Amino acid sequence: MVAGTLGGMEITEFVETLRLDGGLLADAAEEAGPEAPIPACPEWRMRDLVLHTGRVHRWATGFVTDPRDQPYPLPEAPELADDELAPWLREGHHQLVLALHTAPRDLATWTIRPASSPLAFWARRQAHETSVHRADAQQAAGVPLTPLPAPFAADGIDELVTGFHTHERSRLRPETPRTVRLRATDTPGAEWTMHLTPDAPPRTERTAASDAPGGEAVDTTVEGPAETLYLAVWNRLPWDGLTVSGDPSLPALWQERGGL
Q1: Is the pTM of this model over 0.85?
Q2: What's the pLDDT tens digit per position in 158-180?
Q3: Could you write out the three-class secondary structure of the chain?
């Protein structure tokens, strides 16, 4: 199992989700067409989404197939005709899946953040990167979102709130300190308490035992199915499908400043 992930998902589970979602992303890109707007990223069209995702896939593949101890920039976006976009995306995605599937378990290479292993990091990060952008593509195409397994969705919340939003670049900073609890109601152990302050990035704790008597009081509690919560905190769905109790200002703050 991947140590440090919520529920200890297997590397193979991340790679399989990456495989499925990458294909669905390309399908939706073909259906929508290159000029379809991306609802969650108003400045983007489908062409931008495909080029971004394809570049990220190729960039990540490089760290797996050509290990290194320093980062390097994303590859340049190629000049592609409309009918070349989806095949180019599929090729880069296939190479990434193949690289992760065949990489040695003791792969030593650079990662964005510490992890139980570099292979676990890249499998997890690229699975969630692709899942979120698959949702973007399906929304742009006007097709139903493909359901995500609750454990995977809960892990994606965990990656966001215990990883990305603990860095200095996080803009989740209210005017006064607030404490927020996020809870995935369909996934045991999927609960986090975030301490938000004006002058520092959030401090987040996994707090699955908070239902015990004497648990820490919070200003806002947000609850819902893991998939709904995942897409909301990644700003891919409105918060209407979640239950918000206490101070209701968090959704607005998150939607305004929670982007990465």
Answers
A1: yes
A2: 999 999 999 999 999 999 999 99
A3: CCCCCCCCCCHHHHHHHHHHHHHHHHHHHHHHCCCCEECCEEEEEHHHHHHHHHHHHHHHHHHHHCCCCCCCCCCCCCCCCHHHHHHHHHHHHHHHHHHHHHCCCCCCCCCCCCCCCHHHHHHHHHHHHHHHHHHHHHHHHCCCCCCCCHHHHHHHHHHHHHCHHHCCCCCCCCCCCEEEEEEECCCCCCEEEEEECCCCCCEEEECCCCCCCCCCCCCEEEEECHHHHHHHHCCCCCHHHCEEEECCCHHHHHHHHCCC
